[in-house]
Every structure is written in C-alpha cells, then in structure tokens.
Amino acid sequence: MSDQDLATSELAQAIDKSNNLQQLWIADESPMPDHLLHQFVEQNVYLASNRYDQVKRAKDRGVRASFNDFDLQHPEQKLWDRIYFRVAKEKAIVHQVINSAADTLRDKGTLWLAGHKKEGTKTYLSKAEDRFGCKAMVKRGRDQLYVGHLDLYQKNLPLPDDDYHDLRLIPMSELESFWSKPGLYGWNKIDKGSQFLADNLEGLNISLAESRILDLGCGYGYLSCKAVELGATMIVATDNCAAAVLACNKNLELLKTQGDFACSADDCADEISRKFDLILCNPPFHAGFSISSELHQRFVRAIHNKLADKGQALVVVNQFLRLQNICEENGLEIVERIRDNQHHFDLYRLQHRR
C-alpha cells in the first residue's frame, strides 16, 4: 500500500520497542504501510480494525488482529499497557475509542492519539483529558499535526458517543426508514448517488427477479432493499466495514419478501467465487482522509471479476471521477451513461468488452 499518512507515521514512532507490553493499535480506513505491519510483528502489537481489508492484510503478514466494530477488549481478557489510535473522520468513533480505552487500559496505562488540527484532534485530546483525569502531553508537527498521549489516572464521565454500538431505526425520508448506526459512511441519510441509481433501476429493462445480484460496498443496504422492492429474489451484499455488515443484515432480515438475501464482510468481494448477472455499486473514493485512485481501480477490477459473461453492472460515481480509462484497462465497456447534473453524479451501465 503506497499511500503515506503523516499522522500514522508519527504515531508509529511512539510504539514501545521493549516487546514485553500489551499494546493495541486501532485502525479504521487510514492506510497502514507494510513496514508498520512488520513493526507490529516485531513489537508484538495487536491490531483491531473495523475494516475487513486492514485485518486480512495484517493477518497475511503475521500480525495478531481482529475484525470488529471498535471492540477494544483484550483477546486474553487482560488490560492494555498502551493503545494507539489515528483519529477517524467520525466524532462518534473517536469518542467511542476514548471511552473504551479508559475501560480497557491498566492503571496509568497510556492512550496515544494522532491527527491534524482540521480533523478535530486538538479538541479530541482535550476531551480525552476530561475522560482520563489528566493532562495530555502533546507534540505538534508540520501541517498542524498533533500527537499526544495521556496516562489513565481516573475514569471520569464518558464522552457522548451517540450510543455507538446500538443499531437504531432511522427515518431517512418521509416514507422510508432503515436500521443503521454510527461507524459507516452516510449512516443517517440516503446517499444521493445511491438514490439516483435506485431511481433509474426500474427503467433500465433488467429482469431483477431472474438476476443473481451483487451489492458491492452495500453500506446499510439501501440498494439491496430497493432492488427487492422491484422484484429481486437473490442478493449477495458485501462491505468492508463491520458496522455496515451489521446494519445491512438487519435490514435484509426484516424484508417481508421471500428470497435468498445475505450480507457478509469482504474486501471488494475477493472471497466470493460465483458470478453475477447484475452488480450494483456506489464505490467509495476516500481512504481515510484522502481521495484514493487505488479504490476506484479495485472496485472496477472486482466488477470485471464477478460479472457474468452477459451480465451488467450499474455504477454511480461523482462526476469528477472518470471511469472510462479504468474500465478499458479492466476489460469493461460503457454501454450507457446517465447524468445527474443537479447533484453531480454519473450512472454508468457496464458490461464485458465484446
């Protein structure tokens, strides 16, 4: 993984090298370079992440790791000596980690936080001081980077975290409600791009009832549920995020329609061997706080690999993302492009190059 994140790199400098401490690194989607994973092995650092690809990649390199929705409990029911966290984009996640760190660190154990000022890190360090009952030691770096650590002296009142671990039924519009929770992208709204895809699904002359459908990067399951409303009877949904899988399964379970519906954690459907007649996809274009062109490539490659010979894929992206070259490089051709100039989305209908 080539992307370098300054906050992650600086935080890695704080890892204790004595190899005899109980150390936990918490990762969301911010890139972790190979040399950092090697460091985890050398210094016996445990990894917890809500991202399936992060955990799979770490395990492949010999790191002890678990895939979960920010559960900081020690796998052997011990207390941690040190916890490291590069702050996430969502406030509820950061508050959840700070709260849980206070519950899972030993007395005078240390929480390390790193991130930039524009990401709220200075404020998070201040809130962690309130939770931990001590003053943070903070080092400032270039690009307004903050790296700070706190020792646990007393557990004060927890920070508000929107009841992070609880699924809740959210009215997304006047007519629709979905189960969702903090920790997944757009958790409390209907994504405009996904809505644009769903609005066009009925008019594209595709027989949903007879199609094997893959919802690639499903989120809380909006596209899967809309496809079922239009007659779909077989859907496999996948997502890289633990919170998304939890929410999507809940929404699929509550469908009042007979069919074969399931959601599982996967990295761009890598572990699915079957082919699909129809693939629905609203791919992410951020990795951590940065736009990632590698993500576009991986999703398009996955579409090529999972699409049946005569299948079609419907992919919605922001208009500034140009898919033509990526599709050509991966043996796909654009059959049709539908534009939403009001919200700046393009909906592409793809198939294998003939």
Question: How would you sum up this structure, described in words?
Answer:
This protein has ten helices and 18 strands. It has a seven-stranded mixed beta sheet, with helices on both faces. Strands 12-11-10-13-16-18-17 form a seven-stranded mixed beta sheet. The protein has a two-stranded antiparallel ribbon with strand order 8-9. The model is unreliable at 286-291 (pLDDT under 50). The chain has helices spanning 6-12, 34-42, 52-60, 91-104, 121-132, 192-201, 222-229, 242-253, 293-306, 324-329; strands spanning 23-27, 45-49, 65-67, 80-86, 105-116, 137-141, 145-151, 168-171, 177-180, 213-216, 234-239, 260-265, 276-281, 286-287, 290-291, 307-318, 332-340, 345-352.
How would you concisely characterize the structure shown here?
This protein is an alpha/beta fold. Helices cover 29% and strands 30% of the residues. It folds into two domains: 6-151, Rossmann fold (3-Layer(aba) Sandwich); 168-352, Rossmann fold.
